Amino acid sequence: MKAFLLASAAALTASAAWADYPERPVRLIVGFSAGGGTDTSARGFGSFVASAPTMNEMPMVVVNQPGGSGLQAAQTVADADPDGYTLYIINNGTMSATALSTPEAGFDPRESLTNLGCVTQLVTGLQVPAGHPATTAAEWVEAVKSSGETVRWSTSGAATMHAIVGHLFMDANEISHQVVPFRGGSNARNALVAGDVAASFNGNQLVDGFEDSIKVLGVPSAERDPANEDVPTFAEQGLEGLNVTGPMCVYGPTGLPEEVVADVSAAIQAVTEMEGFGRFMGRSGLASMHLTPEEGAANLSQLYETFGPVVEQISAAQN
Amino acid sequence: MSAFQDLIGGFGMLFGDPQAVGFTILAAFVGIVFGALPGLTASAAIAMLLPLSFYLGPLPALAFLYVIGKSGRYGGSIAAILFNTPGTAASAATMQDGHPMAKRGQPNRALRTATLASVFGDYVGEIILIFGAVWIAQYTRTFGPTEYFAIYLMAFVVIGSVVGKSILKGLLSTVLGAMVALIGVDIITNTPRLTFGTQDLRDGMSLVPLLIGVFVISEIIIQAERMAKQVAVDAGIADEHVEDRLTFAEVRGLIPLLFRSSLMGSVIGMMPGLGSSVACFVAYGEEKRRAANREEWGTGVIEGIAAPESANNAVSGPSMIPLLTLGVPGSTVAAVLIGVFLIHGIQVGPLLFSETNMIITDAGDFFSSRELVFALFAAGLLGIAAYGLMGFWGGPLIGKTIARIPPRFLYPFIFLTSVAAAYSARASILDVAIALVFGVVGYLMRRTGFAPAAFVIAFVLARPMEEAFRQALLLSDDGVLIFLREPVAGGFLLVGLLVLILRAIGTNRAARRAAA
């Protein structure tokens, strides 16, 4: 009897507490400094989310907690109270690449975080100088293989999503290559603009404004990217298809109450349907795109499987 | 004259953003006050206020910190003239004639000369920056890792050998800064270095707490020590004002001197590592050599104030040229500003002048980085006018007010603010510890004649230099020969070598003369 009373009391307080989530603004943690790509997307999302019907006009307030390439913030959210007032926003590609290449952190987002849905995506592209004679990725592969030269390509870091896609592409097409990692995508792009490298695997949003000097020959996704409809996928061009995109997803700790999961994931879907949000993302060269929590989690697992062997190969090459 | 049209566009963007105008004017005031506080420099003010700029858009943030750099250099002259202590190293030369003039009852004449000279020099420097940077940037766009490595290496050698009195101590300070910069994940191989197994140091030592430690906390320790020792400073000025005004004819007579000193300051400013503190002494020495009334210098002549003050402010604009055209900070103020650009997601370098390099803000506004840079230039021009007006009429009042604040209240307050600033940059207690540790390191460096400025600039330069070196090797089939094969890279390396040799000959000769 006592146990039953306690349980029902607990259930009552719980339902009272969650009855109208959210009752106060939600902290949306960004694992990078203010002003970067993740931060800009997060602030855009945070400013639109208050008008989603399930959010009771409560905003999501962006809090920057840079450190450990975003892993510290992920751990903070994983350890936070599962009350739905501390959430995390991160690109799946970034998070899986970082967690895999930092095994000493002992952090697995598939186990410690709950996916609540995704709002946009970063897509890697094979980028080459605009003056290159090849018009498709297939032609480019032909051209570099017959030239017999080592292809030097720039990318946004040693083991970022873009770098991993580059390694996968070069190895699958048996191209002799040398990666030149840069600190961040802008620096990698600048190396391509300056003509220091022959190609770049980099986020396609960074080509915005540089169309005179860079063209994108293909993307490693299963479907074309809504932000760049005219760029074909590798599979379409008869090359070995990959299925790598980096959706920007919202996460909470594990053990979130069902109502929170329902409210936040409904709000995420509502934001991706807002016209203003699409326009906002468009300015960064991105497109609004929705994945459900299940799709987001499946994408993360799939990235883990694809990236795992490549990350091991990259770190083995250093030792 | 496309730079001229862009500048008009820059004014349009500046005045379209009331927040940016407000922060530009606030910066003029804040810089004067910090500069006038004995011991605190423009770099200290910028380091402390940098975290505040996280909450501003890119233009107000950059304008705020950039204009503090200008007005801080000017503010130092108030302390030099009224209290006979240099508010900043940049105004050390101003003391020699500024204080004697104030002492004989003409403080306002001295302050107004300093104000007019600073404004004149700053405008000359700013105009050289606006037209020079655009012109240089078109040549640096095609620079890659090879050229960058050579430039960084040259900057390293020049900074290490010219900052401070001893070449050896200067170079050692540079090496120390470079070693601190090695902490963090190696970008080429993704291997953590010197992180002691913690996640906190994976992204490297952060710049803001390090700057706060080296520039602010070390200075507070020095002030505390000075108070404990009760060092008496000859700070008295006459109670009665005697012919305490600056006439139009005097100003007109100064114009050729102002032009010469401003150009000297601008040229010195363009060299990485040479800053206001060098420029003011060079201009003072050169004008004294030319002067007909040479023997009166040091007793309070008007030219002895105008020469160093115009030269030290003329440094401000041109010292941004290496930053904006190459991404290489040539001064400590520029080293801090590089952090502000990065915080707002803007890569510094020749592509800044690209009209298609778009930036978007939290508010959803978007503009090209070229527009932003020209709006920043416009803010610089406005900021000079603002501090000039404030200083011309308010300088004496600001000076008197600061003299009334007892140091035992002032410095603890600054200490607390700087700790809060170190914490707030990333909401990190580790950063507070870093600020305190580097406060002690900075203090020890100053007391032993090492060069904190070289240390900080090396810290900022070492990482990109190492990356450029290794990227260049990855791009090369011939290993290190790539640096000699590329003409631009080879040229910069040669300049570095020449500076080192000239400087070694110079000190050698000075040592022999001292021995003889």
Automatic annotation (TrEMBL), chain A:
Residues 1-19 form the signal peptide. Keywords: Receptor, Signal. It comes from the Bacteria. Coiled coil: none annotated. Belongs to the UPF0065 (bug) family. This is Tripartite tricarboxylate transporter family receptor. It comes from Jannaschia aquimarina. The lineage of its organism: Bacteria, Pseudomonadati, Pseudomonadota, Alphaproteobacteria, Rhodobacterales.
UniProtKB/TrEMBL annotation, chain B:
Residues 23-457 form the DUF112 domain. Keywords: Membrane, Transmembrane, Transmembrane helix. InterPro entries: DUF112_TM. The chain crosses the membrane at residues 20-37, 44-68, 74-93, 114-137, 149-168, 175-192, 204-222, 262-284, 333-353, 373-393, 413-441, 448-465, 488-506. The keyword Transport does not apply. It comes from the Bacteria. Pfam families: TctA (PF01970). This is Tripartite tricarboxylate transporter TctA family protein. It comes from Jannaschia aquimarina.
